[in-house]
Design brief:
8-stranded mixed β-sheet, single chain, two-stranded antiparallel ribbon, Rossmann fold, globular, 2 domains, alpha/beta
């Protein structure tokens, strides 16, 4: 049953939580995704069957939470995640970050290391407004973005258009996690499709290079997989990764 909680920043966040006796798992969804995605629900079912606490939620401007997505940015979504983890979870958690959720996961590892048992990144997309959008724009596109406060870019997968606000891109520059080493002393697993046309798997390689403090950093590349990692075989792979993480330290 979906519950709602008010944050200190004035957002009302929708969430679902199951309390179990084993290590908690927090699912961090991607940009323009919500907590009802295939991966979140599949992992939740497994967590309940195996008595793991589990938390999934909608960032502000997403799903059933308050706000409009084009008025929000990464700082808002990070603060949503940090507040819920502090408020609703007990003990160390396994964070599972999908796409943009991988960025939030890495930022949490930097700011709340004592709350994190391990990290699992699913096609993680840290710093994406800068490294995947801004850095690939020509000077005219950048001028247009600044003048019009937003820009529409084609989606490589289906030909649709995605609108990105200048607020989102500008805000990303103060939240970069790949610009310096990240210290973390727990297990880290990254799972990325080599056929991902949204977020190149080179970003996962960059994350591996940037993490220090642990030798337990693992990268699994799937030659045939795209960005979503939601097929049956891929979902089973994610569960296998969780089983590895929860037994390590």
């Amino acid at each position: 049953m979906t519950k709602f909680i008010n944050t200190p920043n004035g957002n009302t966040i929708a969430y679902n939580q199951f309390i179990g006796k084993n290590v908690g798992i927090v699912f961090l969804s991607g940009f323009k995704s919500d907590m009802r995605g295939n991966k979140a629900l599949y992992i939740e079912d497994w967590a309940m069957e195996n008595k793991h606490s589990f938390l999934r939620f909608d960032y502000s401007g997403h799903g059933e939470s308050s706000g409009r997505i084009n008025e929000k940015c990464f700082s808002d979504w990070y603060m949503d995640a940090e507040f819920l983890i502090k408020k609703l979870t007990k003990g160390k958690q396994i964070l599972i970050g999908s796409s943009m959720g991988g960025w939030i996961m890495l930022k949490l590892a930097k700011n709340l290391p004592k709350k994190i048992f391990g990290m699992i990144g699913l096609a993680p997309a840290p710093d994406f407004p800068k490294c995947l959008i801004w850095d690939n724009m020509d000077i005219n596109q950048k001028k247009s973005l600044i003048k019009n406060k937003e820009i529409s870019l084609n989606n490589n997968n289906n030909g649709s258009e995605n609108i990105f606000s200048y607020k989102l891109i500008k805000d990303s520059f103060k939240n970069l996690v790949l610009s310096e080493n990240l210290y973390f002393d727990g297990p880290v697993y990254l799972y990325h499709g080599m056929a991902d046309t949204d977020v190149p798997y080179s970003l996962s390689i960059d994350i591996v290079k940037n993490i220090v403090g642990t030798k337990n950093v693992n990268l699994l590349l799937d030659k045939e997989a795209g960005h979503r990692l939601s097929e049956d075989r891929q979902l089973k792979t994610i569960i296998n990764i969780i089983n590895k993480v929860k037994t390590e330290d």
